[in-house]
Amino acid sequence: MCPSCYSICKMKRLLTIITAGFLCQVSCIQNAWPGETEDDPVRNGIRLSQLSSHPVRSIAYWRQGDQFKVQKTRIGPAPPELIEFMRLDNTFQGYSERPVPAPRDSEFLRDVETAMASLPRAVRRIAERRLFYIALVRDLGGGTGYMDVVAGSDGSAAGGFIILDEGALDRNANAWASWREGSAFQPGADWSIEVRIEAPANDNRVNAIRYILLHEIGHVVDAVIGATQIGGGNTQNIAGNGFYDLSWTYPPPSQEIVVPGDTLRSRFDSAWPDRELLAFYSFNESRYDVADIQPVYQWLRGTNFPTLYAATSSADDFAESFVNYVHVVLDKRPFEIRLRQGGQSEFLLSSCWESPRCADKKATMKRLLLRAEVLQ
Question: In angstroms, rounded to a whole number, what is the distance separating the alpha carbons of residues 188 and 208?
Fold first, then answer.
């Protein structure tokens, strides 16, 4: 099936984002439905336009004048219109699950509220203005959650909302981070990747949710300031922010809106030409196994990507840089990855923010975070 930019990361929908469909272009159509066009593909009987023009994708749904329609923490069960959107989207993506709202009074809701309240003030200020809602559901399908872009009255990205699946978020912080990291490689009985993002005393579900929220808020920031192409940016308006060209080369003008299959390349691909085959949450379908782990992380240590997930796309590069910068630099929390095999523990990666390889990206993240914080 020919991919659309709507599903830029959502085909593996764990910790994913969706770019605004009306800001994207689709490069081809196969097995077309009656009336299907390149700009409005159909999957499983659902048109892309049913999703890209859905009311929840518009700021008018979330705000009334200058006030949010949902006050206080803006965290709670998904409203009916958002449930409708998710069910349409699941059908479009080929998932059989039918999402339902999570209970209003639940430990999960309290954990999400606690995680949000613990974020640095600078991040909370951004969320207050640009994160319209955190919707809690069950039976999402495809993963733990994702962020979607909300368009302003002028069609530009005004912010976004986040969807989280209660049933999929049942791990403590280090176990969740280890599970995500290991998902990029074929599983094996004699090895594991161990990620430490919290000290033992803080290794709980709240801090797993916290890290996930920071990643998704990173996507919101990206969409609003135009750091990459998630919000429909082109090479002209992303060139001035200084982030994109630290790690990525520009695609041809005809492909400025990046979709799966485009020719986006990192500046480090000559040392690892198969980087584009890297896919998190692929597990048994991964192109990489335990023999590839050390070479992959050796390559990563020669780049300015703070995490392996950051190397998968420019949008996830920004989101991962955002979460890892906030987590390590602002919050002074740990980040270390090790390979455990045959009773031995081998170092793979630690925080890059104090090393020369990430010096330029650190300075850029500091500047862009300040810029995002003062946006009105």
Answer: 24
Rounded-to-integer distance, Cα 168 and Cα 207, Å: 15
* pLDDT over 70 at 262, yes or no: no
Q: Rounded CA gap, 107 and 169, in Å?
A: 12
Ranges of H-type helices in 226-328: 235-238, 244-247, 290-300, 314-325
The mean pLDDT value for 108-129 works out to 95
Element (H, E) at 110: helix 107-117
Tell me how far apart the alpha carbons of residues 134 and 213 are, in angstroms, rounded to a whole number: 9
Element (H, E) at 195: strand 191-196
Tokens of 222: 């990206």
Whether 293 contacts 188, CB under 8 Å: no
Q: What is the rounded CA–CA span in Å between residue 306 and residue 376?
A: 29
User: How far is the C-alpha of 286 from the C-alpha of 183, rounded, in Å?
Assistant: 8
CA–CA distance, 336 with 196 (Å, rounded to integer): 5
Rounded mean pLDDT, 189-208: 97
Of the CA atoms within 13 Å of residue 151, those in its CB half-sphere come to 19
CB contact at 8 A, 225 and 375: yes
Q: What is the mean pLDDT of residues 185-203?
A: 97
- Rounded distance between C-alpha atoms, residue 278 and residue 285, angstroms: 11
User: For residues 139 and 96, what is the distance between their CA atoms, to the nearest angstrom?
Assistant: 10
**CA dist., res. 173 & res. 346, Å (int):** 21
CA distance 193 to 130: 35
- The residues spanned by each domain of the chain are 5-170, 175-374
